[in-house]
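Narrative of accomplishments. A recurring question from our advisory board has been how the design workflow behaves on a single, concrete structure rather than in aggregate. To address it, we present the structure tokens for one chain from the evaluation set, followed by the sequence designed for it. No filtering or post-editing was applied between the two.
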């Protein structure tokens, strides 16, 4: 038995959510007194591959193949499933990222495995039962599910697990799989924006604006606060529908699901479809001039006030701090 972790990279660099998933997979391997093997697909520097050992991987399988340079769901799933078979892995872990959400069910089908997606805690493994806590109903609830299959696939919610770098470098070996032509029938490319801004799905802090901000000309305050806090910016659906902000910033049921340590919602009412994508945030701060706004019901901290008065004061206070 072993545990296999898919170490996802973006543009050749491992993401924070990858280190979280490796740390998580290492703790599962320790629970089962077994080893953790990582697999990386794409062009990643040898030093970065070996450094996965610092998060717990004993060995890293490196798949570097021109046909797999860009993300292809089906082809990547085939490679990861074949690696799991070759390594005798009965638990496969990956991040519940944009790519991970597409890969996890495909890998599960190929391995005839049970799947728990969006998990937030280590599994409980008592009396032969394997249960995990995961988000459900677009993050509105948690469910505890039991996986009774021999092979299990688990995807970890970003920001749900601590990163623990304390090991030594891993050994790296090449791994290759002969992909079928059918693996390349549907090619989906990640769209990478050329920006220095913090990536929204991985962000630890998110500053988000809604229709209460009145128009795109007022987003300077949101961006300034985000920059001061090292945060990503986000928005509600009507804001991106109106073209005030790019669609890539739209969070919620039909947008990106985020689970940062801190979510600051400014001029957003807190409709159920918006909450679906943000309610697993650890701390929620709401700024809204309407004390009856539904967002206050799920807020940890709330400021009832006009965003145009509150935000400049907040920015000044953060600058002073
Ligand atoms: P509003 O509802 O107009 O709220 C604006 C808020 O700003 C109000 O609470 C108001 O009190 C406050 N405000 C006004 N002026 C100020 C001020 N000066 N200072 C402070 N506060 C102020 N929405 C999403 O966000 N994400 C989704 O993924 C999503 N998916 C959807 C899917 C479906 C199928 C449907 C039907 C809807 C979906 N929606 C989604 C839309 C959702 O129902 C809401 O309409 C939307 O979230 C409201 O956006 P808002 O809060 O920015 O705007």
């Amino acid at each position: 038995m072993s545990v296999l972790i898919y170490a996802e990279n973006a543009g050749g660099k491992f993401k924070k959510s990858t280190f979280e998933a490796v740390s998580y997979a290492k703790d599962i391997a320790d629970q089962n007194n077994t080893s953790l093997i990582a697999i990386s697909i794409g062009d990643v520097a040898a030093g970065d591959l070996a450094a996965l050992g610092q998060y717990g991987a004993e060995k890293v399988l490196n798949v570097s193949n021109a046909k797999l340079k860009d993300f292809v769901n089906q082809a990547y799933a085939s490679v990861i499933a074949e690696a799991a078979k070759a390594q005798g892995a009965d638990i496969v872990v990956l991040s519940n990222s944009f790519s991970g959400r597409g890969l996890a069910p495909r890998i599960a089908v190929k391995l005839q495995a049970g799947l728990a997606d969006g998990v937030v805690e280590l599994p409980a493994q008592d009396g032969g039962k394997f249960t995990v806590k995961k988000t459900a109903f677009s993050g509105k609830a948690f469910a505890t599910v039991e996986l009774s299959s021999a092979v299990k696939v688990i995807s970890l919610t970003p920001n749900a697990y601590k990163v623990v770098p304390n090991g030594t470098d891993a050994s790296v070996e090449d791994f290759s799989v002969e992909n079928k032509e059918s693996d390349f029938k549907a090619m989906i490319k990640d769209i990478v924006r050329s920006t220095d801004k913090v990536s929204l799905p991985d962000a630890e802090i998110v500053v988000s604006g809604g229709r209460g901000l009145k128009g795109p000309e007022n987003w300077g305050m949101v961006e300034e606060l985000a920059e001061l806090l090292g945060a990503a910016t986000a928005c509600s659906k009507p804001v991106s529908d109106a073209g005030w902000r790019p669609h890539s910033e739209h969070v919620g049921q039909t947008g990106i699901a985020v689970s940062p340590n801190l979510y600051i919602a400014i001029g957003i009412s807190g409709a159920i479809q918006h909450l679906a994508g943000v309610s697993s945030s650890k701390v929620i701060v709401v700024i809204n001039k309407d004390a009856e706004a539904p967002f206050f019901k799920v807020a940890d901290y709330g400021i009832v006030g006009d965003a145009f008065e509150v935000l400049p004061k907040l920015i000044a206070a953060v600058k002073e701090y």
